[in-house]
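It is worth pausing here to work through a concrete case rather than discussing structure prediction in the abstract. The textbook approach is simple: state the sequence, then state the predicted structure, then interpret. We follow exactly that order.
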Amino acid sequence: MTSFNQSALLVILLTTATLVAADTLTWVNNPNHYNYFESTNWNPSAVPSTDSSLQITNPNSYVLLSTAASSVSSLLFNTTSNGTLVIKTSGSLSAQSAQILGASTLFVDKSSQTTPAFSVAQGGSMSSNLFFKSGLMNVNNFQFSNAQLQFPSGQQTINSNFLTLSNSKITQSSGSTCSLGVSARIISSSIDSQYATLTNNNNVTSTIHSSNLTFLGSTYTTTSYYLMENVAFTAKLSNVAFDTISLVQSASFSAESSLVSFNKVFSTISSNRVSLRNFCLLTSSATSSSLVGGFNSTIYLENVILALKGKVVIRDNANIIFSGLVLPILPLNIKVYDNAKIKFQPYSPPVQPIRHNLYASAAEAGANTTQSNITVPTNATSPLSIELNGNAQLHVENNQLQNLNLVNSGTGLISFSNSNVTNSTISTPNLVVSGTFKMNQSRINADVNNQGDIIGNGVLNGDVINSGSVGSIYTTDKIQVNGALTSGDSSSSVGILIESVNSYSQINITELVNFTGTVYIRINQGAIVPNAIYNVLYYKNKTDSDFNNITIVYGGANSTGGNTNTANSNIAYSVKYVVDGDQQVVMTVQMHGEPAKQSVMIYSVVAAGCLVLVATIVATAFLVIRRQRNKKLMTPTTVDSPSTNTELTIIN
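Step two, the predicted structure:
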């Protein structure tokens, strides 16, 4: 009985082995015979069926599948040199599992985007080459490892429930339109897309690690959530669009002359910067969207157009830097927290200089976008709102700001250097000014530490500690200081220009003045009108430590006078103080005539003319008397006095 059972079992095993062996088909590689459906090309001789396990392992194998569809159990394609499996025209291959290894190349070229040219149901891998010209591939749980994927001009679609790309490279050439309906994990790999289109629309999470993604003249769109770790993402002359993107570790994001858009969140906590340059257009589509920089990260925007419907949040020691022309075409809201910094800095062009002008006109922006693929919108610039909290800081250097609404609710430092603000409001406990700070219809709600030159037309609601200059002798300034002016620095100054009867500076200080510097007053030729009165400086309560040192500058000449009724050798003027009923002091400059220098010159010319006239009369009288005495003795003689035309030029 035992012997019978053993004999029966042996028969069953042999039969099963025979069946398994019959299901495995090996490519023979007959010369000049490439047809996949030719039975003699397989060993044993058979046409592949759903139960077949295909093996293509001979060197230089060439298999052509072009006339019909084929379904098999599995595929092992592993050659040591120049193996090629071509799927094209009406051909297609589906397998439960597949492995494409070694020096093998899978070549796919089909026009249909609905019927898969190559499909793997349960999983597979490739560590060789894929040349995908056009068609559809469905590969579930598929892994590309040490693989080369080439997408030439054509339309390619790859669908997968999960795809891994490891130590592999995707090369997308001009004219390629590739759609990836996958959730992907990309490790130590690269994507190089040039003048092509790549989309990944699977609405799930994909992660990219230690990889390089480069787009030149391409369009890249994804609806997936992308996490990038130690990734270098570079776009130039491209359109890239994300739903949500997060940069961590040392990931970097660089775009030039490109359209960059996101729907929900663009965030970075990477040690490498997010950089948008050379007239990129940065957009977000939802009011709930956020551009977020945190944890020592840096967002750098140089010559950038902004159309962000949501907000910008900078926190946790992060930095956002604006350089050159930054043009918001939608209201922009920036919130800064937790020792973060916002900085406006000058632009240093590599070749041709572009005037750094923050929020300049859209027309001017358009003139500078010749290297960009972006159409610049023509609507006017929109307000920029910045909110600072905690120890957040703002630094503006060599820039022009328009339509700025800045509110500092924290204690961080706010500083401006060599910058202009137009139609703006700045509210902060303290403001530090260096270089030239020009206001154009702007309001500063702050106590100001002025280490530079404050000029222009605006209101300072706060006290001013002045170690620089308030006003200038070269600009007609209208400055209102709703506070006190204090200066213990003898080198500090107040500058006033009297340009003409209708154009002269006025500085109004509503509180007390404690000033030890110099008031410089420049009087131009057009202002020298007899009896003209110029009220140039208003302040409260004259004391012994206010504007006692006055220097008058006229026509480039400099003369120093005292505190009242100071005469200048060149012009006739007086400086007076008038105190009104509210104890407000008005410094008044009154003209008393034409320049003395001019009068002296005129008097000198007149005197010289008189001397010439007297000499002429005497000489004439002498000649008349002599002529009468010799009238009968000499021939008559006519004497013509030379005419003298004198032109007087006065240069002041």
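Step three, interpretation. The mean pLDDT is 80. The longest helix spans residues 596-629.
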